[in-house]
TrEMBL record:
SUPFAM superfamilies: DNA-glycosylase, Nudix. It comes from Thiothrix eikelboomii. Keywords: 4Fe-4S, DNA damage, DNA repair, Glycosidase, Hydrolase, Iron, Iron-sulfur, Metal-binding. This is Adenine DNA glycosylase. One of its GO terms (biological process) is base-excision repair. Binds 1 [4Fe-4S] cluster. Its EC number is 3.2.2.31.
Length: 349
């Protein structure tokens, strides 16, 4: 069964696989690494323009390592899950300093780098170096879970352990790079989450989920959970020039390292932080933003102040501040909340 599995997948890839994606051209470990990190939690069509701009600005390890955090986050703006960008930057600096700008090529070394797990490490070395390693991204999990009719949520350790065993079992003895890409393509284009094209699938003959007549029953969905609801107040401080005060968030946590409007637990603490008498205060419509583990309800307070040619930090007792004119080019990365609030304000003005 193992030989026919890999052979069927590779045969399908030769006539239906994707071979013209940007990161497939000159697939160096660096180029593949960038693409694999961008593709986590993000669709290919969304990633392509980001990847092209990123590679144009940071064509190699050294250029990425030497760049400022603001520059890296600016290129990531809109992709979400910003920890990925911070880890890319950190990893590039580590490779520059410890590996003389040469991406390591052993599984243990690559897996030890920030933001790279077992599956991503295997994908990088398989796609860029044709090494034989299994991968287990979301697409591959779905293909294997259906093929073997594996019960249980893949996030459970026992189920994940079994999926890894299946991934290793089906590895070919040659053409590993093509096989790895083929497995990702199969899950992305045919064995999709809600409407799998089973009649076109090269694995349909032995697929156990298809034999049961219920392919979409696998993999078992994530157990339902109630998301926590969090409430906060954000200050939109506007001076008489129409500029807004932005604060750079701490390097870790939600929107880490990005520029945003200051956030407070409630209105009283927000207003108490001001070191100047507001000219006017108005409450805007609450902004709701969903995260993986909670939903944030952000109430914006638009506070007009007189700019007496004072430094921004004199307005509030905070560091890392600057004035920003809505609609103008900004060199750093803006949080999605800041982007939405600025867009709303621009439309209202």
């Amino acid at each position: 069964m193992t030989a026919s599995f890999a052979a069927s997948v590779l045969s399908w890839f030769d006539h239906s696989g994707r071979t013209h994606l940007p990161w497939q051209q000159n697939p160096t470990p660096y180029r593949v690494w960038i693409s694999e990190i961008m593709l986590q939690q993000t669709q290919v069509t969304t990633v392509i323009p980001y990847y092209q701009r990123f590679m144009q600005s940071f064509p190699d390890i050294k250029s990425l390592a030497d760049a400022s955090t603001d520059a890296v986050l600016k290129h990531w703006e809109g992709l979400g899950y910003y920890t990925r960008a911070r880890n890319l930057h950190k990893t590039a600096q580590l490779i520059r300093d410890q590996y003389a700008n040469e991406f390591p090529t052993t599984l243990a070394e690559v897996e030890a780098l920030p933001g790279i797990g077992r599956s991503t490490a295997g994908a990088i070395l398989s796609l860029a170096c044709n090494q034989t390693h299994p991968i287990l991204d979301g697409n591959v999990k779905r293909v294997l879970a259906r093929y073997h009719a594996l019960e249980g949520y893949p996030g459970q350790s026992a189920v994940q352990k079994q999926l890894w065993a299946y991934a290793e079992q089906h590895l070919p003895t040659q053409r590993n790079a093509a096989y790895t890409q083929a497995m990702m393509d199969l899950g992305a284009t045919l064995c999709t989450r809600s409407q799998p094209a089973c009649l076109l699938c090269p694995l349909q003959t032995d697929c156990q989920a298809l034999k049961q007549g219920k392919p979409t029953a696998y993999p078992t969905p994530r157990p339902a959970k109630v998301l926590a609801q969090k409430h906060a107040v954000t200050l939109l401080i506007r001076n008489n020039k129409g500029e807004f005060a932005l604060e750079q968030r701490p390097p870790t946590g939600i929107w880490g390292g990005l520029w945003s409007f200051p956030e407070f637990p409630d209105q009283a603490s927000a207003l108490a932080s001001l070191n100047t008498q507001p000219l006017a205060i108005s409450t805007l419509a609450t902004l709701t933003h969903g995260f993986s583990h909670f939903t944030l309800h952000l109430t914006p307070l638009l506070v007009d102040v007189q700019d007496l040619q004072t430094a921004t930090h004199r307005i509030m007792d905070r560091d890392s501040w600057l004035w920003y004119k809505a609609g103008t080019e900004f060199s750093g990365g803006l949080s999605s909340a800041a982007q939405r609030l600025l867009k709303n304000l621009t439309e209202e003005i």
